[in-house]
Target: AAAP amino acid permease
Amino acid sequence: MDDKISPESSMVAGVSSQPAHETVETTTTSKEHVPGPDVGNEPPSFAQSQLHTIIRRQIARPRDGSGVKVSKRPSRFANLPIELGFAGWGKVQWTALSHDELAAAEAKLRDADEKVLGQWVGAAVVGNDLLGSVFYAFPAVAVVAGIYSPISLFVATCILFIFRPIMVELASAIPVSGSNYMYLLNSTKRFAALAAATVKLLDNVATAVVSAAASTVYIEGEVDLPFSPIWLTILLLILFSIVAVAGLKESASLAFVILALHIATMLALMISSAVSWGVHGNAILRHNWAIARAPDTAGALKSIFYGVCLSFLGMTGFECAPDYISSMKRGRYPLVLRNLLWPAVFLNSTLMLLAFASLPFSEIAGSPNILSQLGYVVAGRWLRIWVTVDACVCLCAGILTGIISNIALFERLTKDRVLPKFVMHPLPRSGAQWVSILAFLIICCILYLTTGGKLQIVSLMFTTAFLAIVGLFALSFLMINFHRSRLPRTPRTSVWLGFFALLLTLVMLGGNVALDPRTIAYFAAYFAVLFAILCLFANPVTPLQWAYWMLDQVSVLHRRTGLAQRIVLAITRFRRKPVACLIKTDQVDELLEMILYVQDNEPTSCVKLIHFYESSIDAIPSELEANMHIIDEAFPHITVDLLFVQAPFTPNAIEALSEKIHVPRNMMFMNSFSDSFPYGLDEMGTRIIGL
Model:
């Protein structure tokens, strides 16, 4: 990059008036020759009063910008070289973006903007998981809620309407795929965002495992397996992992066809059940009510409550809608949520009521494949086979959805430098990210086998993961309203609704724990392990520094200088990846907050402060260069550069600059913008780190 280096700061203004190609050296005057004011004379001028400070800074900072900012503070490494972690001095540069660079960036952004999903196809992509969850939710809910299962399912579906305005506002403020990970990343610290990513990873794993196990149940109901059903579940997970490695990706058209088949199957089942109910009357329903109802009102309410807590297993898939925001046409996301919720309200409770009107309670409570059994009773074997085929198709699509959702999650984490780049290494022919697929398969198998292959435990974990995600929606909503209140979004929702939704989620989670305390134990164990792994990948510098410190404490190892050098090289390699902060003003407190954010959240020692100006350099804040030098000196472990860019502040310019300085847009940070800003966060592609 043919950058222009600014001259040294003048004594008075502190900012160079013209950009220059070469650094202009300032002559250093020794302290004893500095003229000072005589006693009784006029006060010194501003330049005279600041001269000693300027000379001190010139002595501390090498004129050519070389050297390392080694602090005089004591080091924690008493016996090893203290240069570990210290960075070089920052510099000031000038650059301009050409018309060709801006045009290339515009073409790249235009090609990457693939908003193709409308309200119906978008609903179909998510709806297969939501409407297909009846196959594994009904048996679990029937055991807990009994005859009150239709009420529990109806109440649980209605509760999700509370989260709809919250999810709409979140998507309006941060219209980027990534769900709670992106919401919390742009509203609070990366530590919280990694926790949300861990929950999402567990949700993807539970989606695949429960879908595979439920599919096994329906296959086992039609075929006598020569081996344990556990191995068929593992085989299905391996099979669809191979399908994903072969290059098959999620298709909106295929999802729409599968959803149409599922809806046709459910309508056929509901019509046949309604006809059977009309022919045989209410005898079976009365009998079920007589033997399964609670003895008192308190018992009935308890059954309904526990049924509601577990009924969210039948809502799984709804939490995946934000993962597709970037592919949805503008304004379609609220319609997609509406198109998901209303069919669920009608399908879940109605179909469960028809089951109680057609099947004895003993068959409902003891059958893991309720819907195929219902089809056999009301219409015969042909409908049973049809329902079984539909169940296998929907549930196997759920396995593939879990795998592909996890690939998208890992890709997002890799772009944000949480996971190493080799995780997304593609195969030569198919282009599939085989490392992420293999890692996901291993996690799925470990989770399923450690639960003893019990679908009930995995289903409860699935419900816990779902409730954790919708609870994080409420938490993200509150964080954005508190930390990023200036972000434009429409419509606005009352924060009290966010508090109510969060409280409701905690109550539902408590109900699931009360149902089976093992659920929270399994969930917490898997969460702790996966979260620790993500944190280790996100900040490898800290454990390396601990290793360096331990090496420093063992005197015998001081001779092993090669090991110390390898650790230092590893730390240096991780800390050399730069990030950028887009700044508008020269306020030193704002600059300080940005550097502190980087220090707390990113394992880097290279920060570029970037200021855009269009034509005249007179519009550049007068104290920006001087304050940059102050910040650079205040952080000896971070190199703070200042880059002036002559270009309009637009998404095209951000992309062109990203290509020029080799810093991805998602690693460029900026403060919140208001309604007057002409671009959205999805267009800018940056991260919001300040109010």
User: Anything to note?
Assistant: The first helix runs from residue 46 to 60. The chain is about 60% helix and 5% strand. The longest strand covers residues 606-613. The CA atoms of residues 286 and 357 lie 8 Å apart.
